[in-house]
Amino acid sequence: MERYKENQLKIYNSLSGQKEIFNPINNGHVGMYVCGPTVYSNVHLGNVRTFMSFDVIFRYLKHLDYKVRYVRNITDAGHLENDADEGEDKIAKKARLEQIEPMEVVQRYTVDFHNVLNNLNFLPPSIEPTATGHLIEQIEIIKMIIENGFAYEVNGSVYFDVHKYNETNEYGILSKRKLEDLINNTRELQGQSDKKNPQDFALWKNADAKHIMKWPSPWGVGFPGWHIECTAMSTKYLGEQFDIHGGGIDLKFPHHESEIAQNIAARGIAPVNYWIHTNMLEMNGQRMAKSTGNIINPNELLSGDNDKMSKAYSPSVIRFFMAQSSYRSVLDLTDAGLLASEKGFYKLMEAINSLKSVSFGNSSTFDVKEWKQKCYNAMNDDFNTPILIAHLFEGVKVINQIKEGKASLTSEDLETLKTTMNSFVFDVLGLMNEAAQNNSEKINGVVELLIKLRKEARENKDWALSDQIRDELVEIGIQLKDGKEGTTFSIN
Ligand SMILES: [Zn+2]
Predict the structure, then answer these.
(1) DSSP string spanning 76-87?
(2) pTM for the whole thing?
(3) CA 73 to ligand 1 center in whole angstroms
(4) φ, ψ for residue 6, nearest 5 deg
(5) What is the CATH number for 241?
(6) How far is the CA of 393 from the centre of ligand 1 (A)?
(7) Could you tell me if 304 and 312 are in contact, meaning their C-beta atoms sit under 8 angstroms apart?
(8) 372 by DSSP, 3-state: which?
(9) Centroid of ligand 1 to alpha carbon of 94 (angstroms)
(10) How far is the CA of 245 from the centre of ligand 1 (A)?
(11) Distance from Cα 279 to the centre of ligand 1, integer Å
């Protein structure tokens, strides 16, 4: 039986502000859209946290036997410097500064993004569409919005009429903002805009002669606004209405708010049933920002080549650290926190690896079925990974007690414990078994010890023992080499 049939998943829906029972539109299938990166610079660690939260959500939905179509886009045009509609296109600006083609910028940082995510053991999404690959779809939706009277054209640009939309709909339904407050808080940019009202946003922008990223449209040569690409790509691949839309909390307004408005204006349908927003990542209690220097990029964190942390941290330790807090809480990245996670992670790996040699008993002293259910309950409660990890450590405690002879499990219960630990640790949390790497340090230590004992044997002229150590090491694939500086070894 599919696991989703025996698990009642609840998701905190940002739209309602409540945890809701998850009911997908098509039984057994889930459509999920997550706003991907704007590829004009190396991926920010805060974005990695967002994508990692959705990686775990994707993994858990798959673990529940849903057929998931996960769409995560690449923004390669249309995202202007200031998230409203002003300033230069982020990618075009980078291309101008570095004197390369915009598509070279896109290629460089898309490759970087994929490398970082691969290093951190992300599952690839089902579809990764680009904005520039979906200009026809974007233009079609803009035409529909104009036809329905919710957008207007001025000097080759098209703007969404927020005031008109708000007469019959609610602009602010997701971000809980009121249009009148937005009006009071908007600074009027006098004479700089063709907009009827400053709250209106661009669906299409006219491109002047020096603009390097531009395409033909019914309104002249130009480029799409930022919000319209996600409306075009999400509905193309997931339908007019789909299950989950996610992104960082900073995208709630104006980006996601505008996506809802565009869909309703074009098709009269609210597109998304469950909105999921992930919270921010801070470092040492402060916002990460280039301007203050309080920033670290994912590669620096992995390599240890930085002045913020005491050492390098492995991909699984970083994943484990992030999973130790709920995706809805602010997470504070600190060296002490990472060190503690590292300790916890290796403890977990050691217990899992020792499961291979643990033997079963005649009876069980621990209720494995109840424990297993608690693990599922944690994830069913809005993907509560910190609670899941607490239960996994209850499992670690039992494993260690069995090894000490203080607890026992029947063969059936032991099997359940093994499969449950493995499923959650590797399939759902996406951790990798890095204990092997940790063990290699121990093997090195053991060989060094044998080299020392062999040296002592030779000093005592105990040639038989010295040869035995050397020969038996060769048999298990470890070669000793005697040199002037002492004995070294290599492992085949
Ligand atoms: Zn988006």
Answers:
(1) -S--BSSSSS-S
(2) 0.88
(3) 8
(4) -110, 10
(5) 3.40.50.620
(6) 37
(7) yes
(8) helix
(9) 21
(10) 9
(11) 16
213 CA from centroid of ligand 1 (Å): 19
Q: How far does residue 255's CA lie from ligand 1's centre (Å)?
A: 6
Do 126 and 190 lie in one domain? The reply is: yes
Distance 36 CA to ligand 1 centre (A): 7
**Same domain for 230 and 333?**
no
Question: Cis link prior to 254 (omega < 30° from 0)?
Answer: yes
pLDDT of the chain along its 492 residues, tens only? 999 999 999 999 999 999 999 999 999 999 999 999 999 889 999 999 999 999 999 999 999 999 999 999 999 987 776 655 667 788 888 888 888 889 999 999 999 999 999 999 999 999 999 999 999 999 999 999 999 999 999 999 999 999 999 999 999 999 999 888 888 777 665 555 789 998 999 999 998 887 888 999 999 999 999 899 999 999 999 999 999 999 999 999 999 999 999 999 999 999 999 999 999 999 999 999 888 889 999 999 999 999 999 999 999 999 999 999 999 999 999 999 999 999 999 999 999 999 988 999 999 999 999 999 999 999 999 999 999 999 999 999 999 999 999 999 999 999 999 999 999 999 999 999 986 566 666 787 888 899 999 999 999 999 999 999 999 999 988 989 888 878 888 877
Distance 483 CA to ligand 1 centre (A): 62
Residue 12 is classified by DSSP as: E
Q: Where are the alpha helices (DSSP H) in 206-273?
A: 226-238, 257-267
Query: Where residue 388 sits, what CATH number does that domain have?
Result: 1.10.730
Q: Domain containing 201: what range? A: 3-278
Separation of 230 CA from ligand 1 center, angstroms? 5
Q: How many CB atoms lie within 10 A of CB 402?
A: 22
Strand 222-224 with 201-206, pairing: antiparallel
Residues 342 and 372 in one domain: yes
159 and 111 housed in the same domain: yes
**267 C-alpha to center of ligand 1: Å?**
18
- Which strands, in side-by-side order, build the sheet including 286-287? 286-287, 281-283, 331-333
Dist. CA 80 → ligand 1 center (Å): 13
- Asked if residue 247 and residue 207 are part of one domain, the reply reads yes
Q: Based on the domain organization, do 449 and 354 belong to the same domain?
A: no
Distance 123 CA to ligand 1 centre (A): 20
Q: Which neighbouring-strand residues pair with 107?
A: none
